[in-house]
Design a protein that fits this description.
EC 2.3.3.9, 8-stranded parallel β-barrel, peroxisome, about 45% helix, alpha/beta, Malate_synthA, 3-stranded antiparallel beta sheet, tricarboxylic acid cycle, transferase, 19 strands
Length: about 575
Amino acid sequence: MASFEETFTQPKTTVPKKSSGIIGYDVPEGVDIRGRYDPEFSKILTRGALQFVASLQREFRNHIKYALECRREAKMRYNSGGLPGFDPTTKFIREGEWVCAPVPQAVADRRVEITGPVDRKMVIDALNSRAKVFMADFEDALSPSWENLMRGHINLRDAVNRTITFHDQARNKVYKLNDQTAKLFVRPRGWHLPEAHIFIDGEPATGCFVDFGLYFFHNYANFRKTQGQGSGPFFYLPKMEHSREARIWNNVFERAEKWVRIEKGSIRATALIETLPAVFQMNEILYELRDHSVGLNCGRWDYIFSYIKTFQGHPDRLLPDRTQVGMAQHFMRSYSDLLIHTCHKRGVHAMGGMAAHIPIRDDPAANEAALELVRKDKLREVTAGHDGTWVTHPGLVPACMEVFTNNMGNSPNQIHSMKRRDASILDEEDLLQRPRGVCTLECLRLNTRVGIQYLAAWLTGLGCVPLYNFMEEAAAAEISRVQSWQWLKYGVELDGDGLGVKVNLDLFGRVVEDEMARIEREVGKEKFKKGMYKVACKLFTGQCTAPVLDDFMTLDAYNNIVIHHPIGSSRL
């Protein structure tokens, strides 16, 4: 995996107009703010908040660097033919009889959770959606421009304080919070992502420390009063591959609790199991977080992305059409079942996967058919033993809530009623079984369309994008990218539509040309001309045809949204 210093090159620099009274941000020693100055942003980027973020960076940055180096070493083993598996040295943890700290009453019932970016109207709509939880996302659903990040923190502060409003001028309507709202969880970025608008001791800040640190510092006290019933704040933790990474988070939480003098175990988090290596570390991840855990979640789209990435050096493990890789595949069902068994054995929530459908307003029949697919998926989850599920649109909340309530009744969860002991016999072969299916030209075309359009939106500040009746975030684009790369690298035969041709650079080039023309027809010439579609196409095709697979698409694309301003920091 290339480091940020290796991939980050020459950010844009904007020289502001001369204006009296601009003094920049008041920063502690060693901190340099290179993002645009704004008086509202300065209420988030206070000296105290920046001192807290800097303290986390200084205490834990070497631990992160070591964890990322371990990822690179594991990648080399997998690329040389090795397979991920259970660690024999931690067998005592997997077979031990320990449990995590009791789940706080405030989040005992999580049967439906809604996720989305931290833009102002989304925060209000999601908190008012009647879901049990809203996961506000600084990661896959957000394009991490300086404006998005800072305004996201303003929005969450106002939400916690219950002062958030939004005036839709086109409709002349003011949105505000209902009396009863969803519980707020926050997902910071993963360990690998930098925040290049803030430098600490001469290097870019770690994105997750900026996200976690600013939110926690400004909101922990009010959150515990208004939402946490004396506990919290609550978080989701993304992209971990090993329990050593969970140990870092646990230490960060303990450091934060000491900093503000709240009791140990106040902060609670759900870890996403969305990488293939992490499925073999679920017990170990919970063990490291046992004082701070409220469960694990099946991040199934990123899990598919990780399956391809982990086996990029294995031509015998090619993924079929993405539409065929659902929970009916044995390796996916085994992953879900083992997660349920593990979580319930340890006394915490086992959260199900995302329903990414969005309402099809102009076609009631198609909308009902899509809703029925969602209901069947959620019925599978709740009968398997999941305690809750994810949706990406408020319109899906009632249907999913009905499925879970019909099967769970008044019980807030299934932690003690669905142990899934049958899943305890699942082994490495179950979790690594080769997926079955065929490869088609239509899938290659869909991957190309989705990947380019998502990147084009991401480059203009949108990280959550409606495409073909689904709300897509970075994971969908990552699947598009790595599957196209894999098919190109190994010359996959398109055996599912009777063509019998093999994927090569010539075919891929024609597909890209065709799909760019289709995108222009679908979005219109004017939007296509003004948009970032050509830049996105260059980025996407470059990554699909690269000799070495990039670990994350957004690391390369990030260079295009970083804008440095000469006026940023001052030390008063």
